[in-house]
Amino acid sequence: MTEANIEILKHHIRPFAAHFLKKANSVEPSFILLILAFRNNLNKMKHLLSLFVICACIQLRAQKPEKIYPNAREHKSISYLKEQSEAWKKVTDQEPKNAAAWYNYYYANRNLRFNDTTDKRSMDEKNAAINKIIDDMQKNVPNSYEFNLAKWQNGGWDMKLLPYLKKAQELGPDRTEHVDYSIVLSEIEGKTDDRDLYSRKKFEAGQISAGMAYYNYNVIMGLASNAIILTGGDNDTYPVWYLQSKGIRKDIQIVHVQLLQLPEYQDAVFKRLGIEKWKFYEGKNKDSAKSSHKKFKMEIIEHIAKNKKNCPVYLALTVAHHGFTEKISDKLYLTGLAYQFSNEPVDNMAIMKRNFEKNYAMDYLENAFYEDISPGLVNMVNGNYVVPMLKLFDHYKTAGEKQKEEWIKQKLLAISKGNPDEQKIIKHLE
Predict the structure, then answer these.
(1) How many helices (H) and strands (E) in the chain?
(2) Is the pTM value of this prediction over 0.90?
(3) What is the residue extent of each domain of the chain?
């Protein structure tokens, strides 16, 4: 019921109630009380009706199918993804030849598979459900861009499925959903020009967060010449490749630790750097495979540090706390937004000062003149500034460098807004 309709109702009811109240002597007391109660509760009814309308709108919006993006771009709640899965399922039931609906249905369930901790099904059961969606896509939209891309994506870089990616590229040369895979494939094939082309295409399509680009600019600007930087995800890898496509720090070599488990990627990158191949132990059960993966995490940094080109090795803070530092913590030196691995002592405070004072672009932390596609994720990753900045703050305070102390304090206050440890940081700065 609209505001206007409520006012019309009140306009007609009030004279009606007044008429009967004037004739109170001839009207039953119970009826008078009913009219009075109606008048007294009319405003309450108005608020309740408004609340009902709001709730109905929210529910309708939640059920409306919306484009599903990768988790690396935006994190959505599990409840949202479940609602979207149901909404897109309804569309595919009504329009079985709607390839876009099938792809969004698949992607909602793909995101749920990796993030829904309330789902008690085994991974085999989850995979079977996803495979069923892919099979249904093949039956209904076999010659679509969406099916071929989903078939490739669902294979987890199974190179036997590469023809599906190639087919998707052919069917949608101007589409951008496949660009990430094209970038990595170009890296594997050693086609730097193609990697740069796809990286720029990804940026131009609005798929690289400006905040992530700034953050990763600072990461690589703080590295020594010809450095190797170990990364672990989309948001610490693709922005760097984009920056390199623009001519920034092309001497840096990215090594994506997750992709190292892909033989084709490891062979290409390690050959380029003069690194001996890492042999994964393929166990016969999940426990032995888990043990092999743990060994990889604990030893891969030292293994890469033995590269024949003597390139300095760094570990991005975005992957530093995922089991890679346990064995070598005494050989890692915080230099800003990365750890430098070294068997010899490093004056990391001097390097950190130089990075923050001269190498890093810092203004965007306080004055970001852009709309970001991933504001929540940017705020999260900017939390990596806190520890090195606090160390610098303490250093400046001890050294009596008041101006620099105040400078880094203002940066800390800017990035700590909304941080779970905001109050602790403020207290430390007092």
Answers:
(1) 19, 5
(2) no
(3) 3-62, 78-175, 184-361
